[in-house]
């Protein structure tokens, strides 16, 4: 009887916590939906960039935060998605964003499955070095085969030629940029919401719990029957697909795909987004990505030595908030509640 009472109380507590989380998420989503009405188009574009990078950080954190694998090569999957969109628009003459997403995801899953098969055989620093090396191989190919990739000039992808929702929304005619900014913001917001829900389901599923078991104790996880290498490979592919989706959505905003998105510093930015927000929390990478995007924009606008300024600010934040922005906030709220 006591055990049943305890179980019921635990279920009630879990249900109440989930309800509070759902209410908070709904309020944030409504706020994001209303934001373009009260801010200028430039701020809307910045927030769109932040949401795109939040999708990439969510994917990356499936490896770092939930599987315990630190990848220094996630720019490879971001760049694969970006270049696939550029090739589809330039070489196939397609203009549907949905077709670009399908093609980009297919290309990204193929590359991440191949790279993951090689990388998950190793852990710790060996895993990180392998991911970095493989991403640099893609960067070298994009840089050297300039007759295919455009080299440092990149491949131009004009937003005016793209359509959304199967051609229902286009950007031809006067005022196209203004219409693109607002329409694409809501398009990215919808995909960000979908990606967040899917990732939430993944990390709270038995598969996600198995990943956390592998992260905490690989030997014990293998003893209870978890296929460690297979779970890591699947997590690697899912992580790459999310990051590739971010690269796909990034292209129309940037308008140009260059080898820079395949270079190792871009992978470092993705890592730092997760660490800044708090990679031990689900919402941490989202907050970290949006915050990093605004900090980088402000630093670039402030001084020509923006790399130095941004580095100092980020190092200071990491030292002051060792568990990240969200992790620190949760700890303070918990202390205040007690």
UniProtKB/TrEMBL annotation:
Primary location class: membrane
Keywords from the UniProt entry: Cell membrane, Membrane, Transmembrane, Transmembrane helix
Gene Ontology MF terms: branched-chain amino acid transmembrane transporter activity
TM helices/strands, residue ranges: 17-39, 46-69, 75-92, 99-118, 124-147, 183-203, 233-251, 271-295, 307-330
Lineage: Bacteria, Pseudomonadati, Pseudomonadota, Alphaproteobacteria, Hyphomicrobiales
Organism: Vineibacter terrae
Protein name: Branched-chain amino acid ABC transporter permease
Compartments where found: Cell membrane
A Pfam family the protein falls into: BPD_transp_2
UniProt GO cellular component terms: plasma membrane
Taxonomic superkingdom: Bacteria
Membrane topology: Multi-pass membrane protein
InterPro entries, per database record: ABC_transp_permease, LivM-like
């Amino acid at each position: 009887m006591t055990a049943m009472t305890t179980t019921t109380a635990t279920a009630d507590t879990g249900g109440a916590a989930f309800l509070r989380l759902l209410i908070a998420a709904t309020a944030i989503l409504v706020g994001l939906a209303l934001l373009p009405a009260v801010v200028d188009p430039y701020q809307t574009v910045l927030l769109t960039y932040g949401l795109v990078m939040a999708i990439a950080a969510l994917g990356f954190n499936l490896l770092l935060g939930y599987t315990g694998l630190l990848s220094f090569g996630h720019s490879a999957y971001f760049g694969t998605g970006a270049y696939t969109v550029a090739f589809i628009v330039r070489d196939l003459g397609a203009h549907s964003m949905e077709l670009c997403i399908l093609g980009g995801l297919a290309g990204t899953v193929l590359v991440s499955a191949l790279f993951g098969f090689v990388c998950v055989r190793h852990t710790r620093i060996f895993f990180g070095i392998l991911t970095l090396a493989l991403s640099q191989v893609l960067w070298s190919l994009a840089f050297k085969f300039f007759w295919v990739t455009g080299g440092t000039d990149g491949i131009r992808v004009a937003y005016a030629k793209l359509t959304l929702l199967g051609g229902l929304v286009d950007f031809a005619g006067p005022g196209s940029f203004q219409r693109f900014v607002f329409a694409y913001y809501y398009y990215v917001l919808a995909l960000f919401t979908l990606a967040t829900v899917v990732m939430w389901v993944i990390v709270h599923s038995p598969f996600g719990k198995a990943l956390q078991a592998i992260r905490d104790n690989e030997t014990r996880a293998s003893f209870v029957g978890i296929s460690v290498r297979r779970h890591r490979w699947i997590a690697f592919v899912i992580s790459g697909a999310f990051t590739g989706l971010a690269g796909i959505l990034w292209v129309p905003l940037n308008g140009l795909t260059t080898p820079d998105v395949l270079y190792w510093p871009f992978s470092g930015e993705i890592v730092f987004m997760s660490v800044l927000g708090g990679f031990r929390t689900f919402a941490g990478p989202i907050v970290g990505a949006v915050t990093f995007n605004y900090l980088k924009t402000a630093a670039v606008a402030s001084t020509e030595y923006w790399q130095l300024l941004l580095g100092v600010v980020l190092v200071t934040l990491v030292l002051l908030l060792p568990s990240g922005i969200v992790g620190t906030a949760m700890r303070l709220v918990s202390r205040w509640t007690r």
